[in-house]
Amino acid sequence: MKRVLPEKYMFSYQGDGDLAAIGTGETIHTCNRGENIAIFFINNGIYGMTGGQMAPTTLPGMKSSTSPYGRNLDTMGHPLSLTEMIAQLHGTYYVTRQSVHTPANIRKCKQAIKKAFENQKLQKGLSFVEIVSNCNSGWKMPPVEANKWMEEHMFAAYPLGDIKLPKE
Amino acid sequence: MNEEILIAGFGGQGVLSMGKILAYAGMMQGKEVCWMPSYGPEMRGGTANVTVIIGDKTIYSPILQTFDTIVILNQQSLIKFESAVRTGGKLFYDSNGLKTLPTRKDISIYHIPATAKSAEMQNLKIFNIMMLGGLLEKLPIVNKKFIEQGLYKSLPERAHNMIPLNMEAFSIGANIVETIHEI
Amino acid sequence: MDSNIRLMKGNEAIAEAAIRHGVDAYFGYPITPQSEIIEYLAKEDPFTKRNGMVVLQAESEIAAINMVYGAAGCGKKAMTSSSSPGISLKQEGVSYLAGAELPCVIVNVVRGGPGLGTIQPSQADYFQSVKGGGHGDYHMIVLAPSTVQEQYDFVALGFDLAFKYRTPLLILSDGAIGQMMEKVVLSEEKPRDNTVPDWAIVGKTPNRERNYITSLFLDAEVQENQNKRLQKKYTEIRQNEIRFEEFMTHDAEYLIVAYGISARISQKVVETARNQGIKLGMLRPITLWPFPSKRLVELSQQLQGILCVEMSAGQMVEDVKLAVECKIPVKHYGRMGGIIASPTEVFENFKTLFL
């Protein structure tokens, strides 16, 4: 879409399934080509929309409907951190990981999203914003508890902050 | 004969599990059973309904437009399904949350005030089994003892200590069902 | 009550059947309305808790079918399942399996399309299932269950046929049968069978020739010979494996042809028609490929018309027309995009079309 409508702003809004499982190849090569777009990646560690199945981002030991006894690293592999992987590619310009669970984090995340679009406007290349999120229904927790669990566990595996910053 | 039943209400009212308990009980009693849920986006907070067919004959279509018996648990379902009861059939409802009441004269109509009663007992979780008690009081298609066995089958083990309370609710349902109109 | 009689969802029945039949490996990826298959297998955890069956959630449908290719090449009983969009993704792999003559069972719990479509039931993948789907001249045996019991039974039947003919086999189900619960009589659990077929690749031993599993034959003549081999096999399957069920056809003047959930609906239509003195019967193809054309020809002698009931714009109706060579009127009725026609609706349309 960006190639045929270069004057338009383009962004994708993706989950851990299409970005880190089925679409891993496309994600890596889009980033590697440095397409001038913004990718927003919502990581809640589970396939929420289809009913709580294990995602590539599911944490070790974490329960889901397809890992009911917890993710077993020996048989189900390790959590995949695509954000760190694509930060190493020459084609990415700005890579960051944010969250939206407190007002302060929302402000930071807004800045990151704004920056992603500014980069696009300035033809800088690909910006990638991961937003670590919760899924209280998939995690089977009340929302407040889910936020707390996210802080304690998700942020340990997926630390917040900028991963690749543009050279000023 | 096969009894074709529809249970319709909100997602979260225990519509699907009410149907499941009924289907389990029917199977325990050696009958042919089929449980066909509506599924999809409407399940999330919207309306939910389930078709349960119980009988002695091979079950043909689990998809039906009209039913022998319909259990109505919310206003949308009343509007949508009152006309789907076959002439001479039965309609059960809980008046809680209903703005209008069923009006047909060619079917039997029963009221089960299960929401009010389960709220009085401070346990809304037993609402659906109370409805089931009322339903089976007027439509004795499965034996009560199989309902208890059905509960053991359909509930996870951690919930088995709740079964005596559920059976109490079932009996209460059978007592509180009111005949509005019978043909 | 007999512990081998259970109330199960159609999807769960497939999963339990896989374990009890001694399937070696399941590779899948979640997609509604069939995720219960992989969820049930994950919960049962047969690898550690039952008979050692491998269950793996792949990173995509494409990965899953390629894992099936690998395991099938090792002579193992391998299966995968998905729903329409995921089955489309698998088609390259299915063509490779057919080309390399590898047995496996693939389950499609069909949902409405095209595209990502809806999650409600449909039968619009008929063409894809019976006419190829992937590239090249190939067929899969296609079994169409119409009860939860058949969902269970067809896993064993499927593997028997797939291994007998060394061919991929498809169980073409739909969202309605996958989601509904019925009584299922389970078979005894079989241990997994460690017999290695003589064509499997398990490491060459000195006393035999090297086995090759490939679908690549660059020499056109060799490729044509491979095609001839396949066609010979398909002829044999057509001769031996056609399965169907008839319902009140003995004196029928009109016939419904329907499979899967539509056959269940149509049985009710036949019952209603009979109550009104209309001589309607039903033929339910159990194998959609090979198709029961011969029986249709025989029946057509006594018929005034055929109605195909499918949840599609009309796909199987083409095979029915081909079978009877349009000598009698053949009509179609169906809903699309996830809507299921009720028996009342089908009956009204039958009357409008024929009476």
Question: What does this molecule look like?
Answer:
The complex is a heterotrimer of chains A (168), B (183) and C (355). Chain A has 168 residues and is α/β, with parallel strands linked by helices. Chain A has a single domain, classed as Rossmann fold, CATH 3.40.50.970. Helix content of chain A is 37%, strand content 20%. In chain A, the strands form two sheets. In chain A, strands 1-2-6-5-7 form a five-stranded mixed β-sheet. In chain A, strands 3-4 form a two-stranded antiparallel sheet. Chain A starts with 10 loop residues before the first strand and ends with a strand. The model of chain A has no long low-confidence stretch (mean pLDDT 94). Chain B has one domain (2-181): Pyruvate-ferredoxin Oxidoreductase, domain 3 (3-Layer(aba) Sandwich), CATH 3.40.920.10. Chain C has two domains: 5-185, Thiamin diphosphate (ThDP)-binding fold, Pyr/PP domains (Rossmann fold, 3-Layer(aba) Sandwich), CATH 3.40.50; 244-354, Rossmann fold. Chain C has 13 helices and 14 strands. Chain C has helices at 10-21, 35-44, 46-49, 61-73, 84-99, 126-130, 148-165, 175-179, 220-240, 260-275, 293-300, 316-324, 343-354; strands at residues 5-9, 25-28, 54-57, 78-82, 104-110, 141-143, 168-174, 181-185, 244-247, 254-257, 280-285, 287-289, 305-309, 330-333. In chain C, the strands form three sheets. A seven-stranded mixed β-sheet of chain C has the order 3-2-4-5-7-6-12, with helices on both faces. Chain C has a five-stranded mixed β-sheet with strand order 9-11-10-13-14, sandwiched between helices. In chain C, helix 1 crosses helix 7. Chains in contact: A-C, B-C. The A-C interface holds A 21-22, 24, 47, 50-51, 53-54, 56, 65-69, 75-76 and C 29-32, 35, 38-39, 42-43, 45, 47, 56-57, 59-61. Strand 2 (32-37) of chain B pairs antiparallel with strand 8 of chain C.
